[in-house]
Design brief:
six-stranded mixed beta sheet, alpha+beta, 24% helix
Length: 255
């Protein structure tokens, strides 16, 4: 089973850059998108009726902001869009799809760089999501968690760690949350296969940083222990353009 996750930084914008052709060519079993930046009535009709896929959206109340979507070949048993905390749920940051094999969580974690208030919002969201995910884990669900976490975990996950040590996205408290999350029984699938620096998923659109590969790895696929032995590969696709992020992939062996 091939899963792909991508922060598209505006679904309508990336649609105009050949998104649908890319999607149909890659043809994943599941495609998770973050930062769709639209309401359901703004989705291009072609993206609501992609052949052989069902699609699900969670949209922010604020127009042109946040939002996540999932395209899946297999119909889920049920779909949820809420953590149960209104100030998070009104930003359209979660889709939970329940399949017989696993529960898929597609998440767009907040960015904390705008202000002290948004940094606190991000940390509060982290805490709420931790409780949500750990509860699912303890209840015996196999879990796949993907999305833009908006934090680079270790120094090899960004090109310039010293310069960004005081910037949200690499703050000690943000990185400590990832330590805590992994210690709770989750696995960063890319690092199961690759422990080298230089592999990034986001680049600033300024100063030609993508060409120079001055980036951050802030997009992740996690699994819990119940799926660990089924993980066959985890990839980053930096050659795919259209957003300031690139897609990432996960291949699971079916039972």
């Amino acid at each position: 089973m091939h899963l792909v996750s991508w922060n598209v930084n505006g679904l309508r914008a990336v649609y105009k850059k050949g998104f649908l052709d890319w999607f149909l060519n890659v043809s994943p079993d599941i495609l998770c998108l973050q930062e769709t930046k639209l309401q359901l009535d703004q989705v291009p009709p072609e993206l609501l009726e992609v052949p052989n896929y069902r699609c699900y959206f969670s949209c922010a109340e604020r127009k042109g902001y946040s939002g996540v979507a999932v395209y899946t070949r297999q119909e889920p048993l049920r779909v949820e869009t809420r953590l149960g905390i209104e100030r998070f749920d009104n930003e359209g940051r979660l889709l939970a799809l329940y399949f017989p094999e696993f529960v898929l969580l597609n998440v767009y974690f907040p960015n904390g760089q705008m202000s002290a208030e948004r940094l606190q919002y991000k940390l509060d969201f982290y805490a709420a999501f931790y409780d949500y995910a750990v509860t699912l884990n303890h209840s015996g669900h196999a879990l796949v968690i993907c999305g833009d976490v908006n934090t680079a975990h270790t120094e090899i996950d960004l090109a310039r760690p010293e310069e960004n040590a005081a910037i949200s996205g690499f703050l000690p408290e943000e990185r400590a949350w990832l330590d805590k999350f992994l210690a709770a029984g989750f696995y960063d699938t890319f690092r199961l296969f690759n422990n080298e620096p230089g592999h990034y998923t986001w680049w600033s659109p300024f100063r030609n940083e993508r060409v120079r590969n001055i980036g951050w790895r802030i997009d992740y696929f996690f699994v819990n222990r119940l799926l660990l032995n089924q993980v066959k590969s985890a990839s980053i696709y930096p050659e795919v353009m259209g957003s300031d992020h690139c897609p990432i992939g996960l291949v699971l062996q079916r039972d």
